[in-house]
Amino acid sequence: MEFRNLLLEVSAGVAQVTLNRPKALNALNEEVFSELSSCLDTIGQDSSVRVVILTGAGEKAFVAGADIAFMQGLSALEARRFSLMGQEVMNRIEQLPQPVIAAVGGFALGGGCELALACDIRLASENARFGQPEVNLGVIPGFAGTQRLARLVGSGKAKELLLTGDMIDAREAHRIGLVNRVVDRAELLAAAQEMAAKIAAKGQVAVRLCKEAVNNGLEMDLDRACRYEADLFALCFATADQKEGMAAFIEKRGANFIGR
After folding, report:
1. Strand stretches in the chain, DSSP E
2. Short-list 134, 133, 29, 131, CA closest to 82
3. Is residue 238 part of a domain?
4. Which of 102, 126, 169, 252 could lock 119 by a disulfide, CB 3.0 to 4.6 Å apart?
5. Is 53 helix (H, G, I), strand (E, B) or coil?
6. Do residues 100 and 212 share a domain?
């Protein structure tokens, strides 16, 4: 499948999705969201894809934000529709069966930061910069940034970033828990691919259920979440992967998971 604004490459169970508008710093608009939605459909239905890497083309930006020139003339109803469209794509990334790794180089501002927040794991290059600068434009984040940022780094730090519009570097993003790891710019994609390969080699039913347990459990009280985990834990024992994984452990050999 070919896209105007995206590149999709699949190799060895890893799908790499690259937002490919480097002249516009990979800014998000309706066309990008529509293509990204179609791309996620393709990936979600492809059983050969075990892990997804999401990144941006060019040296300057992962995604510098939503397309401000596009947004400037929107009516209130059009702005709401655009916000809901973006939120739907972010939700689909979060709910995708496969884990999604954001490889963030350069600017991840506004919608770009929100896109990274929707991913399961975030790797950042030394030159990465994060922020939610919407207040500088007289608006608030529209793609669930107020919600995911607070859930990830806590309400106090989230409010500081949201209310000041300040931009932070990769090291500060790592310190507050916004990113998992910081690497050299030249090593960013290699680091993401290495992590993706490691995850792709694990029992895929278990990997997907881990993601499901965390995502859904966070919306429950602790007692219900623990019972939910127990249900998913038990479900693993109906899979070939569980039998292979435990047999391999007992037999002191590498496991050959088949993903069911």
Report:
1. 6-11, 14-19, 51-56, 61-63, 100-104, 107-109, 121-125, 129-131, 167-169, 181-183
2. 29
3. yes
4. 102
5. strand
6. no
What is the count of structural domains for the chain? 2
β-sheet bridge partners, residue 131? 109, 167
Q: What is the DSSP letter of 66?
A: B
Question: Is residue 260 situated within a structural domain?
Answer: no
Predicted pLDDT at 259: 79
Same domain? 58 vs 182: yes
Residue of 115, 143, 120 lying closest to 130 (CA atoms) = 115
By residue count, the chain amounts to 260
3-state secondary structure of 125: strand
The CA distance from 233 to 66, in Å, is 40
The DSSP result for 147-187, as a single string, is HHHHHHH-HHHHHHHHHH--EEEHHHHHHTTS-SEEE-GGG
Rounded mean pLDDT for each run of 10 residues along the chain, 260 residues in total: 92 97 95 97 95 97 94 96 98 97 98 98 98 98 98 98 98 98 97 98 97 97 98 97 97 92
Q: Which residues are catalytically annotated?
A: 114, 134
* CATH assignment at residue 220: 1.10.12.10
Residue 195 tokens read as 């992590």
d(CA 140, CA 153): 18
Kindly state whether residues 211 and 195 are assigned to the same domain: no
- Same domain for 174 and 212, yes or no, is no
Q: Does a structural domain hold residue 1?
A: no
Which residue is listed with tokens 């992590």? 195
β-bridge pairing 14-19 and 61-63: unpaired
Domain span at residue 147 reads 6-200
